[in-house]
Amino acid sequence: MAVDFFLARFKNKADNELQAIVVDVDYSADAKQAAKIILEERRVSGQVVERIEEVKSPQSQSLIQPKKKKRPVHPFNPTPYFKSLGFKDFLTILSVSTMMLAILLLARYFNYGPDLYIFIRIITVILMVFSFLLAHVLYKKDHNHSNNYIGRCINDIVLFSALTISITLYDLLVNNGSPPFFENLIDVFGFILVFSFLALILEGIVSLFKYLFRFLKWEVL
To answer: By the 8 A CB rule, do 101 and 163 touch?
Structure first.
């Protein structure tokens, strides 16, 4: 299904653009596979794609051309995020937002008495932050490279928007008499705007941890 998404997205691209996608490390495996399929349909895959695969292999790369050192992506450049955006990213956002909704519902279910109020709130905040970090780890696993600062911020805002929509749909369709999470649309948009600002701060802290993990040779985000 992910390959079909990229087939529709790449069908109007020129041959040289498709060939560039095949060797671009920023694109996912599904995107590269879709580019190869389109090249085959245009009858250019015989030697061209085979030659690209040869350049890609470590054994022949040293014979054909020296390996170029990849330039670091600017932290405020959103292009890599949108260029590699695919079906897996939407599936990850849907899965993590559903998990976050479950966390909020459990917090509301067990929120009885003033003694548990603060404890439940602290645990909920910790689990929510963990959910956002999990989304970054899954992004790295899906794309084989980390997201930059602005890409993580965009991903956080999309994830939180998906969570907000899930909460709203739950209140409208499933809620069995409990107080709604949001009273009106102003609360919804205000919630998203406040979180968007907090995401900028949170991802700045994550960037500091990324540099620390890189120094320790433990790149997980």
So the answer is: yes
